[in-house]
Amino acid sequence: MKNKIQDLIIIGAGPIGLACGIEAQKKDLDHLIFDKGCLVNSLYRYPMNMTFFSTSDKLEIGGVPFISHNPKPTRGEALEYYRRVTTHWKLPLRLYEKITEVQRQGNFFEVITDKGNYRCKKIVIATGFYDFPYLLNVPGEQLPKVQHYYKEAHPFFGMNVVVVGAANSAVDVALELYRKGAKSVTMIIREEEIGQNVKYWSKPDIINRIEEGSINAYFNSQIEEITTDHVRFKTADEVKTIDNDFVLAMTGYQPNFELLESLGVQFHKDEYRTPKYDPDSMESTAEGVYLAGVVCGGLKTNKWFIENSRDHAPLIIKDIEKH
Length: 323
Description:
Layout: E1 5-11, H1 15-26, E2 31-34, H2 41-44, H3 75-89, E3 93-94, E4 99-105, E5 108-113, E6 117-125, E7 132-133, E8 146-147, E9 160-164, H4 168-179, E10 184-188, H5 203-211, E11 216-218, E12 222-226, E13 230-234, E14 239-243, E15 246-249, E16 253-254, H6 257-262, E17 289-291, H7 306-309, H8 312-322
Parallel strand pairs: 1-2, 1-6, 2-3, 6-17, 8-15, 9-10, 9-15, 10-11
Antiparallel strand pairs: 4-5, 5-6, 7-16, 12-13, 13-14
Helix pairs in contact: 1-8
């Protein structure tokens, strides 16, 4: 089976990778879907109590209805839905199998993983952006108390917690920590205000909590050092040191540029490192390499979502069928 040349290999078993697999399935194309983690790994790593901004119908793929019990679906409902979609379409998954190298061999690609070798004619990159967090690049960031992903508030009960960032994830984390009994919640924010794109129901909440003093917030500020029991940071006016047990760096994430570069994908000369691709076929500048989903936006990770990148899948498979 592993020596067979697949029509395509899809890297990333998130919603858009699954959508590409479904379209391939419809056209009887031999394919495999790889992910170094679990099914829809990025969604799994979201906070346990997260609610989507989109309604459930906008998260649907493969013609399988997504029925939610809430106005906006929850993380748990989404995980259940994509498990159901995968089972319904009998998608050929290779989960917990990390791709270590991709080599072009004439008219096909050699895909090397930590479990074996595969060959294919085309490759679809649907890796999203959630696996590579922006680092603070400060002394002490390697300490176990520093985390770039957040699951739930319980472990931080009674603790002094610093939350870095001012976008949706940072705001949600700060509010939940405050309500679930953290001893203190301090937001350290490089910008001068809470992010413009914060969810409309969360923004007034966080602003009110800051104004009443329930959550401490330092704007125009940056961490300089993290120690086992303190955080030192610089504000617009002074350098401060506060007691600290945990640092949750909700500073955002970026695509796997290394993989794209290794395949020969070229980028626009813009601040977002946007990869070049044909919007009609989603084929990149590297022949036979297609891009799908959030990865198409480069560092502009708020451009593409499940709801507006589902259409990448039929465009890709239609073009692959031509060749």
